[in-house]
Amino acid sequence: MNINEYNGVWVYAEQRDGELQKIGLELLGKAREIADGINEELTAVLLGNNMDDTAKELLAYGADKVIYVEDEKLTHFTTDAFTEAICSLVESEKPGMMLVGATYLGRDLGPRIAARIGTGLTADCTALATEEETGHLMMTRPAFGGNLMATIMCTEHRPQMATVRPGVFDMIAKDESRVDASKIDKRTTTFSDTVDRIKVIEVVKELKDTVDLTEAEFIVSGGRGVGSAENFKQLEELAHALGGTVSGSRATIDNGWLAHDLQVGQTGKTVRPLVYVACGISGAIQHLAGMQDSDYIIAINKDADAPIHGVADLSLVGDLNKLVPEFTAQLRAMNK
Amino acid sequence: MNIVVCVKQVPDTNEVKIDPVKGTLIRDGVPSIINPDDKNAIEEALRLKDKHGANVTVITMGPPQAEVALKEAIAMGADDAILISDRAFAGSDTLATSRTLAGAITKLDFDIVMAGRQAIDGDTAQVGPGIAESLNLPQVTYVENVEFDGKNLKIRKALEDGYEVLEVQTPCLLTAIDSLNEPRYMQMKNIFTAYDKEVIMWNASDIDVNPEHLGLKGSPTKVKKTWTKETKGSGEIVELPAKEAAAVAISKLKEKHYI
Predict the structure, then answer these.
(1) CB A21 within 8 A of CB A14
(2) Is residue B130 in a domain?
């Protein structure tokens, strides 16, 4: 492999059943910075069907060009069809880097592409930068349940691939003036028989009445110290008074107090709200990995030595059953 | 039916602590366990065995002491166990690991290859799909339900906002998540079997893999540096009656214009 033949930054623009996912835009935001830093072109790669308008949107969010592969078989995600379509693009276009969202879809697709090409993939990166002298991608990720951070490089293989979890990077402001139809390279592709090995019988969307945690500006989060599902109501009231939502540490999910998709931490969601109120959360490193980049952290805990205080901007030491309702009551009085 | 389950022995990351002085991981005395998602994979293989009859082989790549994890899998009810261990595997990244495991699995008869979604020490979720690619198998990740009609599998795959139901031909590879099942404990009668049962030991020369693809040499990714994360340091600590404490919190949020 002559790595000098490979250049340009690619972002995989994830769509689910025709709906562009925000993660692709977040990746474009970071990739824009990387591409400018090494003076290379930023390409968004979109696979789908009847998605011409989405292709334009990707230009507005920072892509220099869009490769849009259209086919009926790309309407709904399947590992085989999407892997084939992307691998044939990589072979002909030779990108230097490719970023993929660390979503359920991206964590299925990314490793399959990397293994087919025989290149490296770094999962769940929380920071990306390029090395000054070489322009190689430096990919930083947590390991050991967030206990350890590692910077990983892939210097002899291309493309350098990374997945990034939703909520880690910021998208840039939409700029319609960037949209230029000539920058959209619309293509078709061919598939082998293997793309029919898996048949999609049914796709079920479960309506969830909770907001997307990664979008929330105020989060009130509970841990083991909350004590019961019943006690979580106090947290919900506080969240409501703040105009936010609730989440929990792994313990609260394991105890069945909260739904799975409300877990914050290494094995749950990564959140960066304006304000994160941690109630009865001791602050296991796995939890901290998912919330320590919040703008302002308030810890409410009766244990003055709990590790959560180490990341908090403000620690209220005391009984959450007294502090939380009082906090709520004062907010309500203020909002009246 | 033949089912191969890939497992990994991992340090229990819940028990990993940081040395506050040196800022390094303290791994001494941390118990080694079968990776939790892999246990769900073993359980599902055993359920298919209970229902349809199957030979279940567990396989791991690791140091000699990983034999303990395989013995535990036998005590749960697995029939055979293979440990692939060689100095040549040292430094393997996820691509090299998946090629190594695939090189061993390809020597076996299999209808279904199972693995856990991801291991708690790395959290990459890359080895399952990597093995599937090396063996040219269809893959389903994030599996939360498995139905088998004797020929095809009907798999329920979890998504962020729901699920999908897929029909998959065998042979195929599935990765398990914790909502798939509740892993059984070791069975008393199987514990005795586990003592007697020989774990099959393979090294690099026993498996079907290009030597260039092994270990550090076969790993496109390299760890440049590692460090333990610094916490940003404590902020203000308030220990006051609830009324006053809440007032402090509100004044801070106002001061910073959050509310």
Answers:
(1) yes
(2) yes
- Determine contact: A134 vs chain B, CB below 8 A: no
Do the chains contact at A316 and B238, CB–CB below 8 Å?
yes
Is B147 in contact with B70 (CB distance < 8 Å)? no
ipTM: 0.90
Domains of chain A (ranges; CATH) run 3-196 (3.40.50.620), 213-335 (3.40.50.1220)
Contact assessment for residue A148 and residue A92, using Cβ atoms and an 8 Å cutoff: no
A286 CB near a chain B CB, below 8 Å? Answer: yes
pLDDT digits (tens, 9 = 90+) for B43-55: 999 999 999 999 9
- Test mutation, B30, B95, B127, chain A, max A CBs within 10 A: B95
What residues in B contact A104, CB-CB < 8 Å? 141-142, 158-160
- Residues of chain A by 3-state class (helix, strand, coil), percent to 5: 35, 25, 35
For the record, the structure tokens of B87 come out as: 């100095």
**One-letter amino acid identity for A159?**
P
pLDDT tens-digit map of B80-90: 999 999 999 99
Distance of alpha carbon B96 from alpha carbon B102, whole angstroms: 10
Domain containing B203 equals: 2-213
